[in-house]
Amino acid sequence: MPDLASTRLAAHEMAARLRAGSVSSRELTEAHLAAAEAGNHALNAWLVIDRDAALAAAAAADARIAAARADGSAALAALHPLCGVPVGLKDLVTVSGGQCTAGSRILDGYVAPFDAHVTERLRDAGAVIAGKLNMDEFAMGSSTEHSAYGPTANPWDLERVPGGSSGGSAAAVAARHVPLAIGTDTGGSIRQPAALCGIVGLKPTYGRVSRYGIVAFASSLDQVGPLARDARDAALLLHAIAGRDRRDATSAPVPVPEELLALPASDDEAAASLRGVRLGLPREYFVAGMEPGVEARVRDAVAAFEAAGATIVDVSLPHTEYGLAAYYIVAPAEASANLARYDGVRYGHAVRGGDVLGSYLASRGTGFGPEVKRRIMLGTYALSAGYYDAYYLKAQKVRTLIKGDFDTAFAAGVDALVAPTSPFVAWPLGAKLADPVAMYLSDACTLPVNLAGLPGISVPCGLSDGLPVGLQLIGPAWSEARLLALARAYEGVTAGAPWRRLEPPGLVAIDPAGPTPARRAIALPGGHHR
Amino acid sequence: MSAPAARAAALERYEAVIGIEVHCQVRTASKMFCACAVPPPDAAPNTHTCPVCLALPGTLPTINRAAVEHVLTTGLAIGASVPPATRWDRKNYFYPDLPKGYQISQYDLPLAANGSLTVETSEGPVTIGITRAHLEEDTAKLIHAAAPDGRRVSLVDFNRAGVPLMEIVTEPDVRSAEQARRYAEELRLLLRAIDVSDAEMENGQLRVEANVSLRPRGTGPFGTRVEVKNMNSIRAVERAIDFEIERQAAALDGGEPLRQETRGWDDAAGATYVMRVKESSDDYRYFPEPDLPPLVIDAAWLAALRAALPELPAARRARYRALGLPAYDAAVLVNDEGMRVAFEAILAAGPGLPPKEVANLVTGDYGRALNETAERTASGLAGRADAASLAHVLGEVVAGRLSRANAKEVVAEHVVGGRPAAAVIAERGFAQISDADAVGRIVDAVLAANPAAVADVRAGRSQALGFLVGQAMKASRGQANAAVVQAAVRERLGRGGDG
Description:
The structure holds two protein chains of two kinds.
Chain A: H1 11-20, H2 25-43, E1 46-49, H3 51-71, H4 73-78, E2 86-90, H5 117-125, E3 128-133, H6 167-174, E4 180-185, H7 191-197, E5 200-203, E6 223-228, H8 231-241, H9 267-272, E7 278-282, H10 292-307, E8 311-315, H11 323-338, H12 356-367, H13 370-383, H14 389-411, E9 416-420, H15 436-441, H16 447-452, E10 456-464, E11 467-474, H17 480-493, H18 517-523
Parallel strand pairs in A: 2-3, 2-4, 7-8, 7-9
Antiparallel strand pairs in A: 1-3, 4-6, 5-6, 5-10, 9-11, 10-11
Chain B: H1 3-13, E1 14-25, H2 65-77, E2 85-86, E3 89-92, E4 102-105, E5 112-121, E6 124-137, E7 141-146, E8 152-157, E9 164-170, H3 177-193, E10 206-216, E11 226-231, H4 234-253, E12 261-266, E13 271-277, E14 287-288, E15 295-296, H5 299-307, H6 313-322, H7 327-335, H8 337-349, H9 355-372, H10 387-398, H11 404-417, H12 421-427, H13 436-449, H14 451-458, H15 463-475, H16 482-495
Helix pairs in contact in B: 1-4, 3-4, 6-7, 7-8, 7-9, 8-9, 8-10, 9-11, 10-11, 13-15, 13-16, 14-15, 15-16
C-alpha cells in the first residue's frame, strides 16, 4: 500500500508541494485511491472509485505542471491550485461516459453522455476526479440512509449516520479519502453532513454555481458547493466551479472573487480580521429540541468570536418557525415535476407493465424508494387543483417573508449570522428512519437559507460526546468570500484548541473484513425499519 | 333534405358557438429551449435531438429569444396587450411523447392577451376576439407500428420535441363554419405577412382545433362542447364544423344527450369520429417554471418590434380599396405575396398608371407568367422581370400604342428573358399605329383593293365591315390600333355611303 501520509494534507498544501515538485499528482492520487479502496468497505462512501480515469487525469496534471514549470514561475502560478488534486463528486453530477445514479435504483445503469458544468470546470482546473459518492436518493434525506446502494457510515462512529444528503461526500473528505468533494445543498445537504462529519461545507448563493449537469431535486433551491477540511480548501474548490454558465438560465453573471485564492495562511492574521466585525445571533435558531452539547459548542464559538474582537448582536428572524413547513411544500412540489422524466421510456430502470400506465407504475413503483415516493406524493398533492393556493402559493409567500427577515438583519449592519448548523450531532443508523418528521427537523436551521437563496457555511466548532458539532455562518447574497474569511478567522482563533488535532477514530481502526454500514444498521436497534 | 338544406334548417333553430385554438410553429433556427436545429419535415427520426430536448438528468432549458419575439410581434399585430413581465409554467402530465413529464408553457401570464382579428365573410365583416397567444414547446411524435415479429410497438421520434409553438386561442365568438374558415385563412395570412411562421397546414406548422357547441337561438347558456381535431386543411376546418353543427343539431332534435368529448375529422369519410371522452377535467398542476427566471419585456424592446411590423393585410386591403380597386382585386393581391410585390413595384415605377389597370395586368398577364416560373428576382418579381419594363408595357397599352394581345406576349417574353420591354416591342414590331392619318392611308389602300367588300357594306351587309377591318389590321401587320382602324373604315364608307 502506498504511503498514506499525503492524505493528511490539505489541498492547498498539496498544491504547494506539486508546484515545488516534492510530490506528483500520481503519488497523491495513488495514496488517495488506496485510502478510499481500503476504507470504503466500512464506510460505503463511494459508489464508484474510478482508478483508471483518476490515474489518467493525474498523469495529465503532472504533464501540465511539468510544462508550466518549464515555462517559468508565471506559468506555474497561472495553474489553478487544484491542478493535480483529487476530488470526489456526489453521484448526481454528470461525468461523460460514467454512471449517474443520484442514489436511485431508477437510474441504475444509466450512463451520462455529457459532463456537468462543474465537471468541465474541474477538468479545466486540472483536478483529478476520483469517483462518485453516495447520497440520499435524489438528495432527499439527511442521513444518506435513503440511498438505493446502502447507507454510508460516519467516520467518527461507524454506527452513526454521516448526515445527508451529501453524506458520501462528507464521509470521504472526513476519512481522508479525498481532500475535497462536490456536494449539493437543497435544504442543508452540504452543511449538515459537513457538520456531522466535522468538516467544512459551503452552500453558495443561489445562482453562483451552474446547475447544468446536476440531477435536479428542487430547482429553485438546489445549489452545488464544496466540502473540504478547511476554509482555504473550500474557497479553492468554490473558485474552480463558480461563475456564469449560459446553459443554466438561473446562473448569475456575478464575477468570481479572486480573494477566494488568497485567504490568509497565518492563523494570527486571519484571527485579527475579526476586529470590528458585527455578527448577528438569531434567537429563533437556538430552539427547544437542540441538543445541549450542540448549543454549548456554538455558544463557545460565539464567545471566541467576541473575544477576538467581533461584536455580537441579537437579531430576530421572526418567520423562521414557518420555514420547515414552507420548504416541505416548495421542494416536493418542484421535485414532483423534476422526477416525472424518470418513466422508463428513454433510459434507466424500466419494467414492462402491459400498457403505458402499467409500465409507468411498474417502473416508477420499483425504481423509487419510499422517501422519494413520499415527496412526490406531497408535491403532487400541494400542486393539485383546489390546493395550490392554500399550499404552494402560501409557501411562496412565506418564502418571501423569510427572505425579508434576512434582508432586514443584514440591512441593520450585521456582516453575518452565527447559528448552529444541525440541532443534533450524528445519530445512530436507523434512529430516525421510521419518523420522517424527526429526520426533517435536522435541517430546521439550514433550510431557511435555501429558501432565501443565501450563502451559508458550516465549520467544525468542537465535539459533543466525541462527535463533531457544526457552526453555521450565513451571509448576504454573493458574500461567499466574506463567509470563508470569517470561517478562516475562526480557524485562526481556535488553532490551538485540542479538538482541532483530533481525527475520526475510524481512520485508525478500520477493519477491512468488518461489517458494512448496511450490516451495522441491521444489527442496531431500529434497524428493522429498513 | 340535402346537406346544405339540413344545415340551414339546423341553424334556424340553433346558434353555433365556436372557439378556435391554433397551434403555430414559429419560424426559428433552433428549438425553444436548446440549441438543436429545428428539423425539416423530412428529417430521419431522432436526428435532431440533444440531452436537453431528450430530458436527460441534469439538463436545463434556456430561452430562444427569436421565438419570444415572434409571439410578441403576433400580439402587436392582433392589437393584444403585452405584460411588462411574464414567466414560464410547467404543465404536468405523463405521456411517452413528453420527455420531461411536463411541458414548459405559459399559464396565467401569456405573452399576448385580449387581441382580435376582423375577417370579411359573405355576411359582412366579423370581429373575433383573441383571448391569448402564448409560447410553449412541441411534444415528440409517437409512431404506432408493427415490429418485425408482428408485435404492435410504439416508437417515439423526438425530433419535434421542443420545437417552439405559439398557441392562439379565440373567444367563443365564431358563429359559423364559414367564419371559422375565414378566421383560419386570415390568421394564416397575418402570420405569413409578419413573417413569424410559414404556417403550412400540410406540414403541421399550423394546427387548427375547434370547440363547437350549439344552443337554441335566443338562449344564453352554452351547450355541451365538442373539441374537433385533425383538420388538415382550411377547407377541412369548414367541412368539419359544418358536419359537427348538423350532427349536434340532429342529436339535440332527437333528444340524445351530447357528451363532452374530443372528435377527429376524417376527411375521406367527411365525418367526425370520437377520439376521447372527457370524464373529468384534467389537472395539469401548473406551477411557475423554476429553471427559467421571469422574462421582462421592456418598452424599448416592444417599441423596436412595433417599428419593425410591416403593413398588415387588413390595412393593405384598405389602402388598395382607397386606390380604387374592387374588394375582390384587393383581396387577391394581398393574399398572393408574388402579385402583391409586383403590384407595389409597378405602381412605384409608373406612378401615373391607373391602379386598376396595374391590378389587371398583375392578376392577368403577369400572374400567368408568375405561375409559369419558380424563378424570382432579388426584389421578388417573376423570372427576370423588372418593374420599369412592366410599367412601360402598361403605359404603352394605356396610351394606345400597344395592343392588349401584344402586351401579353411582351410580358411573357420579358419575364423569361429579362430584356427591356421597349426593346421587345420594337423588335417584335408591336408598336401600335394609332395616328389617324397613317391608319387612314392603310385603310384607303385596303378599300381600293377590295371593291366587292366595299359594295357589300354599302348594300348593308355588315359582316363585310369586319372583313375590311381585318384586312387593314393584316396590312399593318397587327400594329394598327384596331379601334382607330374601325373608326376609319366606318368614316370612309359612311361618307361615301347611303347616309
